[in-house]
Structures are given as C-alpha cells and as structure tokens.
Amino acid sequence: MTYAFLLVLTVVFLFPFVIAIATSFKTDPNATANPLGLRPSPTTTAAYHTLFHSQDFPTWIKNSLIVTLCVTFVRVFLDSLAGYALARLRFRGRGAAFATVIAVMAVPGVVLLIPKFLIIRQLGIYDTYSGMIIPLFVDAAGVFIMKNFFESIPVSVEESARIDGASLFRIFWSIVLPMARPALVTLFILAFQGSWNELPQFIVSAQSTSLFTLTKGVAQLASGELGAGNRFPLKLAASVLMTIPVAVLFFIFQRRIMNASAGAVKE
Amino acid sequence: MKFHWKTGNRWRLALPVIVICACAVAAGTAFGAPAKSHANELTMLVGSSGPAETNAVNVAAAAWSKKTGIKVNVIIASDEGQQLAQGFASGNPPDVFNLGNDQVATYVAAGDLAPLDNLKNVKAFYPSLRAAYTVKGHLYAAPKDFSTLGLVINTASWKAAGLTAKSYPKTWPQLASVAKKLTRNGQVGLCTNPEFHRLGVFMIENGGWLVSKNGKTATVNSAANVQAFNFVKTMLGAGSMKLTNQLGVGWGGEGFGKQMCAMTIEGNWIAGAMKNDYPSVGYRVVQLPHGPKSLGTLQYDGGWSLAAASKDKADAMSLITFLTSPGVELGNAKAFGVMPSVISAKKKWLKLYPQWASFLSGADYSKSIPPVDKITTVLGDFNTQLQALPTTNPKTILDRVNSELQAILG
Amino acid sequence: MERIARRSWLPEPGIRGHQAAAGWLFLSPVIIILGLFLIVPIVMAAWVSVSDWTGNGSPFGSNVHFVGLDNYRQLLTTPSLDQSNFGTALRNNFYYVLLVVPIQTAVSLFLAVLVTRALKFVGFFRTAFYFPSVTSSVAITVLFLFLFNPQGAINKLLSYVGVTGPSWFYDPRGLFHVILGQLGVHQPPASLANGMFLGVTYWDWLAGPSIAMCVFIIMAIFTTSGTFMLIFLAALQGVDDSVYEAAALDGATEWTKFRYVTVPMIRPAIFTVVTLGLIGTWQVFDQIYVGTKGTPANTTLTPAFLSFNASFNNNEWGVGAAIAFILFGIIVLFTIVTRLTTRNPERVPRRRRFGPTQPLGTPDASRVASAGGLE
Hints:
The complex is a heterotrimer.
Chain A: H1 2-24, H2 28-33, H3 46-53, H4 57-88, H5 94-106, H6 113-122, H7 129-133, H8 140-151, H9 156-163, H10 168-179, H11 181-196, H12 200-205, H13 214-222, H14 232-258
Helix pairs in contact in A: 1-14, 3-14, 4-8, 4-11, 4-13, 5-8, 8-11, 9-10, 11-14, 13-14
Chain B: H1 7-31, E1 41-46, H2 51-68, E2 71-76, H3 80-90, E3 96-100, H4 104-109, H5 127-132, E4 134-135, E5 138-139, E6 142-154, H6 155-160, H7 172-182, E7 188-192, H8 196-205, H9 223-238, E8 241-243, H10 244-247, H11 252-257, E9 261-267, H12 270-277, E10 283-286, E11 297-306, H13 313-323, H14 326-336, E12 339-340, H15 346-352, H16 357-361, E13 366-367, H17 375-386, H18 394-409
Parallel strand pairs in B: 1-2, 1-3, 7-8, 7-9, 11-13
Antiparallel strand pairs in B: 3-11, 4-5, 6-9, 6-10, 6-11, 6-12
Helix pairs in contact in B: 2-14, 8-9, 17-18
Chain C: H1 2-7, H2 16-49, H3 70-76, H4 81-117, H5 122-134, H6 137-147, H7 153-160, H8 175-182, H9 190-194, E1 196-197, E2 200-201, H10 202-205, H11 211-237, H12 241-249, H13 254-265, H14 267-282, H15 286-291, H16 303-313, H17 317-341, H18 350-354, H19 365-372
Antiparallel strand pairs in C: 1-2
C-alpha cells in the first residue's frame, strides 16, 4: 500500500523533469510540435552547445560555487547559534528578538531591493564577492526553523552536561549540535539550494560580467523576446544543468537526515 | 560540581563570533574596492534580445572606443528596469541606456533623462519615431530601431482558399471577406491578441486615437473608436476572426505558427518565431488595409537615452550619434533583423529584406503610444478589459478606459 | 522575569546574567547582518511609503517630501485604477494562499509519513519528492509554461482520457464562476454586481482563483512540498518509538495513532510549515514575474508583483512601498491567527508542561508562541 502510493507520487514528481530532459535534446520546432514525446527526433545537443560555447558558462559555475559554499557553511552555523539562543537561553529581550526575526520575514522582499542596493554601495562592497555573499550569511527562516527544532529535543542531556560544568558554547558545539543533525542537514540543504538559486540579491549587489552567477546568466539567456521564439530546449537545458548539482548533493546528504538523533532510526 | 563562569569559557564562546565578524570585515576590505568611474570612461546599459544583439552592441562600442580613445563599459542587463532604478537612486546611473517609448514619459517625470535636442544627427530619424520620444517639446531618446504591425498571411491557406496576389485586402470590407473565405478546415481567418497594442490599428484606420491632437484630452470613447471596435466585433461575431485567448494561445504568432488561423496582425519579430519554432509554415506580410479614413498601424520603438546625471554628456552624445549612424544600424539589421531608425538606411535595408517592405513603409503612417507618465498602467487595464470584447459592448470598455486616461492626463 | 525564571531549565538564579550575555553573543552575528541588510532597508522603505520619492537620487535627498498617508489612501480609500488593481491583486493572492497553504502542508506531511514508513529505496523516494524543490523558480516556471501550454504536454495527456483541457495560462475565468456557470448561474444578483470593495465588485471577489492562477497553485504545491517534507522528516525523527508502542498496546488504529500521537508531537513543525507557507504564499513574485506578469485580465496579479511594477516600471515608489507594508500587515495578522489555531487544545496544567514528566521531545506550542512574543 505504502509502495503503491510512493510509486504513483514518484511518477507525478519526476515526470515533468523527464520531459524537461527529453525536450532539452530536441530541436525548437520539434519541442513545440511534439511536447509530450520522450524520444527527441532528431536528437540534438544544440541547446547544450549554445550554453557552453557562446556564453561564459564556466565563469557562472565558478561564481555560483564560491558564493554557495561560503554562504551555506556560515549560514548553517550562524542560524543554529541564534536558533539555540532563542530556544534555550533565557534573557531579557529574547521574545522581542524572535518577534523581529519573524517580522523581518514578513516584509515582501521586492520592496527592499533598492534600499539594499544603496546600503551595499554605502559599505563599499558593491560589485564584489563580499557584497554578494555577506547579506546572505543569515536568513530569518533558518533561525526560525532551528529555534523550533531545538525546542523539540529534550533538555535532559544538556542539563547533565551543565552539571558537569561545561561552558555554554561547548554544550552547544559538542552536545546540542550533534543531536540536531537532522535539522542541520535540513538547513544545510535549504541553505545550499537557496543560495544556489538566489537571483535578486546578485542583481542588487554586482554588475560585472565576471561576477555573474548561473542564475543571473541563465536569466539573461532566457529573457528573449517574442522574436527569439520559444527556445524551450535552451531554457530547459539550462534548468537541467542548474538542477543536477543540487539534486546530487541532496542525494548524498539525505541519508544523514535519518541516521541521527538518539538512535531514532526506524528501518 | 557547581557550574561557574570562567574567563576561558567566555573567550571560547566569543571566539567563533569574532572570527566570523573578522572574516566578514576582511572579506569586505579585501574584495571591496568599490566600482570606480574613470574620467575617460562611459557606461552603457543594454537590455539585449539575445547573443546576436549583445555581440553587435559590443562590436559597435569597441569601434567607437577605437575612434575616440574613450573606453566604453558595456553592461548587459539581467533586469534592465531594476538596474536603471539602482543607477538613478544612487546618482550614478549608466551614461547611455536603452529605453522603450512607453517608458520615456515616466523617466522624464522623475527627472532622470537629459534632452537630446542637440544631437548631431537629430534630423536623420523618421519624424514619427522622433515624435514617439518627444515629451513637452524635447527629445529624450535617439530612436535606434522600430517595428510596425502588418498583416501576416499563411501562403498555403491563401492559395487553398482560391485567393491570389490580387486579393490582398485593401479595405475593411475586403479584409472581412478574405477572412471569411479563409475560415475553413478548422482554421479561422484572422486571429490576434486581445490588446490595444494590436486592435488599436483599427482605431487609427478609422481616424480615431487615444488622445486629442494637442494630447490634452482623452478620446478613447470617440465615435470613430466605437465604430472601429464594432467592426472588430462583427468579424468576431461572424466567426471569421478570433482573439488569441479564445484560441488558447499566447499571441498571434503562436496561433499563426500552429496554423490555427490563416492571418494575424503582428510585427517583424514574428520572423524569428517562425524561423525557430514553425519553419515549415510559409507566409508573407502585406500592409494592413486602408480603413474608412486612412492607412494605419502601431509602432514600437527602441531608443538610446542619456542620463541627466551623466558626467560626460558631450562624449555620451557622440557615442549615441555613432550608434545611430546608418552603418551601425545596418550592421544591427544584418545581425538580428531590426528596422533602422534613420531614413538614409532605408534603401540598403530594403535590399537586405525585400520581403519586409510593408513593415518599413509603416513608418510613414504609424502612431506610437503617446508619451504620457503612467500610460502603461491605463493601457494594461485596456488590455484586461479587451479580453472580454467578444461578450461585451465596446462602448462600455472604451468609456472606462477613457476616464482612466483622462485621470492621468490631468 | 519571574515567570520566565521559573520556566528556565537552569536551577541557579545567578546564572541568568551569564545566559543573557551568551544569548546576545550567540545572536549578535544574526542581529548585525539582519540589521544591516534587512532592518535598515525596511526602515528606508517605510520612509519611502510616506514620501513622494520618484527614484531619482537618494530617498533622503532634499527634493523628497513627506506626504503623510497619501500613498496608503490612494490604495485604500480613493477610487482609482491603483485601487482596483490592488483589490484585484489581493483577491487573487487570497485564493492562492487559501488553496496552497493547507494543501501543501497536508501533502508534505503525507509524503514525510510515507517516506518514514518505507523500508527500501528510502533515499530514492526522498530525492524524488525533493527534486522539484531544488529547481530554481525561474527554471520551474519555464517548465510549467511548457507543460501547461494549451497545446502542450498536460492537455495532450488529458486528451488521452477524453478531456479537452482548458487553455490554462490564458484562461481568466474564476474557478467558482466556472462552477456556478455549470450550475446555470451566469449573471450575478444585483446585490453582488453593484457593491464594491477596493474597486472590485462583490461578484468578482467571489470569482475564485482563475484557471491561470490554478496552474500557479499546482506549481506552488509541486515545488514546496519537498522542502516542507524535509522539515516534517526531521520532526518525525524526534518522535520516540516508545510512544507509538504504547499507543499500539492500547489498540490504536493507524489513523488514531497519527491523529493523537504524531500530530501533537510535531505541532511545532506544523507551526513552522504553516507560518513559512503563509509568508511565502503572500509574497508570491518570481513565478508571476517570469510567467505571466499578471495576465490574463489581471487574474494572476499579486500584491508583491504590483508593488514591483508600481516601483520599477511606473516610478510610483511610494505606492509600491505602501502596498508592501499593507501586505506585511496582512501576513502578520495571518501568522497570529495561525498561532492561535495551532495552540495545543488540551490545556495541561502549567507546571506539568515543562516538568521532567514531559514525554521526550514534546515541545509545547504555547512555548513557541510565548517566545515569539505573540501570546
């Protein structure tokens, strides 16, 4: 029963991507005329050729990697540090700090684009890696997720460590973090995916071609006008190429979501 | 054992935080030399339609640099609107940038643009293009290329319906009659977008327009316009014409390419879509029919504007003059098929693209959207209302849009 | 302070001062970065919403004036195109939230439970369900434009089962109006046709999401279920097997176990998912920007997109910012309502909730909220 559901849902979730991959190997007319066909006829790698040869694709990949790796590690650390403080430590202003975190998430991002740009410029980090990276070091949603997660793990272990006289940071680092591994892996994946797919922040913080990320490059590539035609193969090829690294990373790390937390493995 | 706070612990706690902050600051200073502006450098922001245009712009800018010794920093926009807004807000916008004519009044109202009345080649452009960029008597962009709408015809369907080269419609009744003949075998005669930006041609052909001659009064619900839309409605009612939302396609080019309709009203951009997505469909383009009053078509323009905050206006204007010289514009035409904005390039262009002659001749009798601040919002609502044209009295729609337009004309 | 002190897991009162120092220290990087790149911009945007800034030069320049609540009035009380567009955008987004949030929460929880129960190929299934979430919103929108083209893959699939699919992205008819039309109601009663709220008639408020918006709704569920599944998976890990075993001894069925054991245990995760869902759905922008830009007939217009359009395309920066702050108010309101409805219904005596007898890993919803300052 479980497997019947799982299989049906897998087909539903993956089918669009199978079509995307098939379409990326089609010619433009073929993609338009035969959208459902899984076998391209004729098969062409023209879309991938365009991506790799007429564009700075390698630069985009390099920049995306630099930004994503920096952001992911720092963000996981800082978000969980803050989440822990909000969940466990008692201090005046804690409630207000948490309410601020939530409120910050609730302001629609589009309205902040220009002010963010003005600040990045003011700090002298416009058109640099730091301008692209530092504002992404923290995200409110991550703090929120970590805080709620820390509240769902038992305090008893920490209490005994505390009685042994361990410092707060050591308790956090060597006791709480290992217990929080499922949430950390979740956050790691979300942070990786989030910064890999980030676009507005990079438009706001940089303009040089040498600082283009994949999202920026592909967005520019895909923003053709009516005259360019649908160019579905090209756009879908770009999206396939952008998706695969994250999917592979997820496949590697997802095991760890399960193998954690006080022998809770149910298999 | 009692817990007590040791200095060592506090430091161990503080250390990672300090390290992170230090990293951030170090990274900031290391990478962080802000974008510098050389005295002898111009910045140009381009919203490119694709690699062909990007390449052509880079080549042209490099040629000008070589001639003058002034460096041009060409930035291809990921999102031109946002990047322009950033430039204006910071007081450091690109010197030269693209602007569509529907945007020009909005930027003029904010004081973002410098007038180009003294451009060297200001007389070289088609008058209708110059008018499209003239706000309160001043020119705010040098037209770089333009498009007009024409009647695009599926040649196979045309022949199959027993029509010949002599039957190209010259008048509204002829248009209605060929559309009726072409409506066969599941294909509808004419299809187009439910938009002012297409259906507006009927207003012009009947002597109507959005605003009065002096541009101060909205005339959307004039008798001429009502009559024009009533003509469209008779064709819709007869079943020989359908709007693209009725066909379930995004725009006329798609309905035409998928052979759901035998004719459509589109601009020269349809060529790219036909070549890429529907290469097997044969077609030709003719002038839109003469309405009861005149010939008429709508025109869409691209232009080069100069920022009011530019620090080197003289050089920027010389760059704009170069970019709109016949040689550069013909190069663009070869590279990505646009129509040049200068009259002197006309002959050579017609040799390149004889099949588009009727698009180019549209320059003489076309109108473009009046340069009024916020007009895009009103036209957006016009398009929204036109979705329901088949089931609505045109007068109701036109009255509504008229009052909206009058509100922004002040 | 007294109340908080009692709740603390630290017995020694003298330690609180140290905790305060440590708490602020742990929070400081977050505070600095959020402060610099979010809170300061928010303050600037708030100023813009009560100014006549046109985007030229700094918003704090001498040519920018304070206009009070004019921009808000323009949207809320002055009958105008701005107002009816805003009303339409609110309606569209309301139906979007109303459908997406409950469905995505249910689907992601369902996926998480299914995956937790599977014994083999778990990694494969997890990856499969998560796959749509890793794709950037730009890419996924392009894919959906392709799939839901009226002559595209989806309608071709539907035609195999004899259904003529709608024209999806080009169909502005409201879902509820379509259903009423099937029942023979085509014209609104006069009472609904004439009354207006925010420039939109009552009849149009009741239109439901347009067919075009339905595609975005499907897309949102498709792309976010995987992400939220992760949060539920992590939470389900925290539920101790012994609780289930105890329930099994009591003879509970699968459903009652789920309803009375699992759901209360993962209440904080549900709160997380619903809150993040509300925030995300009320701010839907990317998909609209890449996909339809509000067409057809403004039925996919959303306040976030309208705010962007007013600011960047019309230079109405004040109105654009005002839209964003009204939206902000709506989101906060919804978050508070969520908080009230996910509150634990069984009122456990206060002492017991935080006492050592509390079952392993059962966080209490009211604790989440008291910390959030929402109680």
